[in-house]
From TrEMBL:
GO molecular function: hydrolase activity
Xref: PANTHER family: DEAMINATED GLUTATHIONE AMIDASE, NITRILASE-RELATED
Residue intervals of the CN hydrolase domain: 1-239
Keywords: Hydrolase
Family named by the database record: Belongs to the carbon-nitrogen hydrolase superfamily. NIT1/NIT2 family.
Name of protein: Carbon-nitrogen family hydrolase
Lineage: Bacteria, Bacillati, Actinomycetota, Actinomycetes, Kitasatosporales
Domain of life: Bacteria
Keyword Protein transport tagged: no
Amino acid sequence: MRASLIQVAVEEGESVEKRRRRVADLVRDQAGADLVVLPELWTTGAFAYEEFGPAAEPLQGPTYEVMAKAASDAGVWLHAGSIPERDPDGTLYNTSLVFSPSGEPAAAYRKIHRFGFDKGEAVLMGAGEELVTVRLPSTTLGVATCYDLRFPELFRGLVDAGAETLVVAAGWPERRRAHWTLLARARAVENQAFVLACGTSGTHAGIPQAGHSMVVDPWGEVLAEAGAGEEVLTVEFDPGKVATTREQFPALKDRVLGLAPPRR
C-alpha cells in the first residue's frame, strides 16, 4: 500500500481560497498512491481561533467540493484533513472528511477531544460523539484528530471496531514536538497498528508548527518522517503486517476489561 502524507504549510498571508486550490493540486500530484492524507484545519490553521467562525463551512461546502474532485482526479482514497464545519443549528465542529477514489464521501469525523481547556477550540467548537472507521480494499482506517492522540482509550475503541491503520490529522505545535513523536509511536505499539500522523508546517497565529509527519509500523518503528517544512512524505507499507504482528505477539488478547475500582 502506498500512502502520501501532505504536510501543508499554513502561513499567514495566504488566503483560504488560494491554499485550497494549491492543496488540491498537491493531491492531484499523488496519482498512483492508494491513500493521501492532509492535516488538521489546514484551511485556517489549528490555532487561528478567530478564523474558525468566519471560515466555517457546511459539511458539503467549498472544501468538500474541491477535495472530492481532487480525489476523483487523482483516483485516490483521500483523508482531506479537517475543516471548521458549521452545523445547520449553528454549532461549529472540527470535522475530518474522507473520500473514495471516485470522489464519493466515505466518512466524516467530528473531533471528540477539543484542545484548549477553557479557551480556543474547547469553547468555540462542539465535541463529536462517534468513532469513525473506513474500510479500504487492503486495510481499515481508524480516524482521529490531533489532541485525540493523547487519549489511548479512543484508539482502543477504533481497534475494537476493526481499525488496522490509525490516521491522525494534526496541527501540532513545535514546542511539544517530542510528545508528537512519543505518542504516535505509543499508539502504534499498544494497538499493534500502523499510525499515519500528518501535521502542518509553517507558523500561524504566531504558533510555529511541528511538522515531522510520520508513518509508524505496528512495532513502533518509524518507517519515514518528514522535516519541518512543507513536504510530501510517501511510504509503501504492507497492511498485512498488522495481522502478522498481532499473531506473533498477541498482547491484545490479554486485555482485562471492566476492572473494579480500588476499595477504600
